[in-house]
From TrEMBL:
Native source species: Populus trichocarpa (Western balsam poplar)
UniProt keyword terms in alphabetical order: Signal
Molecular function in Gene Ontology: hydrolase activity, acting on ester bonds
Protein name per UniProt: GDSL-motif lipase/hydrolase family protein
Alphabetized PANTHER family for the sequence: GDSL ESTERASE/LIPASE EXL3, GDSL-LIKE LIPASE_ACYLHYDROLASE
Signal peptide: 1-23
Superkingdom of origin organism: Eukaryota
Family designation: Belongs to the 'GDSL' lipolytic enzyme family.
This protein's record includes keyword Signal: yes
One protein family per Pfam: Lipase_GDSL
Amino acid sequence: MANMKPSVVLVYILTIFFNTGNATRSRSFSKFPAILVFGDSTVDSGNNNEIDTLFKANFRPYGRLYPGHTPTGRFSDGRLITDFLASILKIKNAVPPFLKPDLSDHEIATGVSFASSGSGYDNATNDVFQVISFPKQIDMFRDYTARLRRVVGEQKAKKIIGAALVVISTGTNDISTLRMDRNDTGYQDFLLNKVQFFTKQLYDLGCRSMIVAGLPPIGCLPIQMTTKQQPPSRRRCLHNQNLYSVSYNQKLASMLPLVQAKLSGSKIAYADIYEPLMDMIHHPQKYGFEETNKGCCGTGFVEMGPLCNPTTPTCRHPSRYLFWDAVHPGQSTYQYLTKYVEKKVLPKFL
């Protein structure tokens, strides 16, 4: 070392520094052995394929950008935010649905999604759309736990569930109705009570690390603007509906620390989806978007699910559209949201 030139020594030191930093980051982001997902179409990777409902996306053009250009049941042109999260956390590249017919033992050990497109916290929502309710998703989690014990044994199963990252993303289907126009804040409190109840259930079943997503700017969803019969040339986000989302999110963000305090050893973090989406809408050029008030599929005003099908034309460049269909963000949007969660939410667990 004494005969080494100063420049060589500097390179040597920097190499050690960056390698050490990368190793630390890798260990930190490998903290979670599995990812467990509950919610609606924002995180359903294909469970609705296996039930009798119109809320399906297992046909083209869905999955246009997914590996192999395969429609999987994800309401997206590609991967979902939970898929990207699983990749960042070095768990796996995609989160399979629990109802996948050929679900492998390895997939069980590293986590699955129990989410169902069209579902919500409110059982009335699930009854209308004939999808998998949140209580049923928790029942599925109990079935998952039983299989996990058979795969890895009782003690390891307990460790996996206790160390897994739980993601909960739902609520939009519950309130994307006239409730917002009536400023029905009492319904917000009803939903928040459901959040407390379900997080407590998951805690009692062994879960300790949970991310609970807030509401998006519902008034900016293309389908919501269409319902107000806005002319294509003057489509604008619905201010009152966005205010409702903001009000709910503020209550949720304030409530979760109180829930965490009651559940010893838990970490329950709020994930703000509203602000990053609004930044994309107000500053699309920062993200490479050219269209933010309609989807890529069809006219972009009403098409989703069965209306977005193999006969429906799509835009040439989905990555330039914030929305894939009239309700759901595209893969590019989910990538940006994931980066936001990685920066703002994941450090709370590390």
